Amino acid sequence: MYEGGDRGASRSGAGNRAGSGTGNSARSGTGSGPADGAPRPHLSHRVPDLGALELLLAVARHGSLGAAAREAGITQPAASSRIRSMERQLGVALVDRSPRGSRLTDAGALVTDWARRIVEAAEAFDAGAQALRGRRDSRLRVAASMTIAEYLLPGWLIALRAERPDTAVSLQAGNSAAVAERLFAGDADVGFVEGLAVPDGLDGVVVAHDRLAIVAAPSHPWARRRAPLDPAELAATPLVLRERGSGTRQVLDAALAAHGGLARPLLELASTTAVKAAAVSGAGPAVLSELAITEELASRRLVAVPVEGVVLRRDLRAVWPTGHRPTGPARDLLSLTRDRPRER
User: Fold this and answer.
1) What's the pLDDT tens digit per position in 89-110?
2) Domain ranges across the chain
């Protein structure tokens, strides 16, 4: 049942006033509408709402206003008021009421035929909209920067699977710049990035927090030092790093900009896993998310190197194109990420 409030009486004579001896401007073109540039009256002011039309159809089926009211789930006085409101809006009597029941007038029978077509079209519209929602809800395309894709999203997607077992999920991993590009191209429904701020053209919300750590293999001299690194020494040392455009690199570049900037990287690699493997092998010290090195620190395959005078903390964000907040499975995934406290 389509419910809707009474629209009230329509404007007297609206839509029926043609120019009377004032020229041909209102009759140009097809002659069926206002002159070019003139505002058209909204149909909502002239056409009864769906709830009222369905009520009229119920009166036609049952021959009783009381039975129509019961079908609509409203009281008989409310049904009578709605019919009277529609009669005032249309300017014609639709229903003759008598102790024996309610009978459509000739005008009411004609309006009922029109109403049936409108309601059938609305039902078809609703069925189509449901089909679109079903198609939307059948898949979820996620784009995420590497650390989030490898260490946070698996848990979130397992939780989503429990809530939406029929939704097929695809995950595209890349750096934060690549995530933004996929969202702009319409190739992802929601993204996750690790940079300092929300990229231009995107809206976002913080879903977790992370810190970057300086790590080295146990054989590296930094693993045995007692004093923390200072920012200038860190900046001047060639490191194993992620590529430009990654959230990790953005945070590190910003943190060390006031200390001479980063030295030329020892190695520049396109994934967290590759950076970690290079550091474990002894290629050189690296900068990695704390989320990525829990096992390596516990097993002493890597050693955390303390550093003073520089902040390497970052926010992890869910992002989407400005003005297009996630819906369906993407909205549910976003809710799952925010239901889990991430403060470290």
Assistant:
1) 888 899 988 777 788 899 989 9
2) 25-134, 140-344
